[in-house]
Amino acid sequence: MITCSAPGKVYLFGEHAVVYGEPAVCCAVDIRTRVSVAPADSVIISSSLGTTGIDFETHPYVSAVVERFRELSSLKGVSIRIVSEIPVGSGLGSSAAVTIATIKALDALLETGLELDEIARMGHEVEQRIQGAASPTDTYVCTMGGVVMIPQRKKLELIDCGIVIGNTNIFSSTKELVSNVAELNESFPDVIGPVLSSIGKMSLVGEGSVNSKDYVSVGKLMNINQGLLDAIGVGCSELSSFTYAARNNGAYGAKITGAGGGGCMVAIAPRERVGDVADAIASAGGDVVVTEATDIGVREESR
Ligand code: MEV
To answer: Domain containing 14 — which CATH number?
Structure first.
């Protein structure tokens, strides 16, 4: 049996604006999805969602990866087991992580010799097939790990402080939120255009602050980014309440991560204040994940 894992991710800056070609800064976080594969007579996929064969309802991403490997190799049967620490559908990159970890595990089992770039590209193709449209951000960051500026694919210094995630557990559709922003932009291009380009500038200014480990400035920029995300209509009262709870209890800064409208927020904080920030978000009603940035992208864990 071969086990591979891939990390989740948060956006420090730039979600939504990245859809318009603006830069974004994403950070892989140390919550991982593990995928174990072993030879079998037929395809068996098991996870907390159940045990299936190729099944695009229950296991769409893994099913698409298996079909892709059937085109590349003589693969007929395989047993695939998924265990994930990444909450599903919360904007933390759970679908990218399961896709990328499965690609790496099948690559190792079938000895197809894929390079990391090819794994990221295949992962993006699978996400596009399943979601209709997807930016390459999640699959790239989760393959490479670390802090990455997109679309430049430039690695920045690893974030060296606490990261606290607050999950609203409110489902939000990325597709719907992206299309709401597009509508707003069509109605008020002279207003929304500059907001999106300001978010892009935040990533460029933030790059310097991340690289010099100036987390006070990174936090201030995250707070400004949050204001602009609210301005383009992707906030909600729970996300606002968690971000204020985090800021009022020692975080350097806090903002939505991902599409917004529900899902998760992220705060960065000095390590000695992580407990206070986590308690404050939990008291405001959030499910809390305390984590750290990780430089480790997809990797083989055991065989
Ligand atoms: C969603 O996680 C991030 C968005 O920028 C959409 C995308 O980049 O595909 C809202």
So the answer is: 3.30.230.10
Residue 299 belongs to a domain:
no
**pLDDT of the residue at 234:** 97
Q: In the 8-state DSSP scheme, what is residue 293? A: B
State which residues form the domain around 205. 159-291
Q: Mark which of 88, 122, 155 sits at the end of a domain.
A: 155
Res. 233: pLDDT tops 80? yes
Domain for residue 85, yes or no? yes
- Answer whether 178 contacts ligand 1 (Cβ < 6 A): yes
Supply φ then ψ for residue 247, to 5 degrees. -65, -40
| Tens digit of each residue's pLDDT (9 = 90 or more) over 58-93 | 999 999 999 999 999 888 999 999 999 999 878 899
Chain centroid, CA 243 distance in Å: 18
Q: Is 18 in the pocket of ligand 1 (CB under 6 A)?
A: yes
Residues 6 or more apart whose CB falls under 8 angstroms from that of 117 comprise none
CATH number, domain at 202?
Answer: 3.30.70.890
In angstroms, what is the span from residue 272 Cα to ligand 1's centroid?
31
Per-residue model confidence as pLDDT tens digits over 147-199:
999 999 999 999 999 999 999 999 888 888 999 999 999 999 999 999 999 99
Looking at residue 23, its pLDDT comes to 96
Using a 6 Å cutoff on CB, does residue 139 contact ligand 1? no
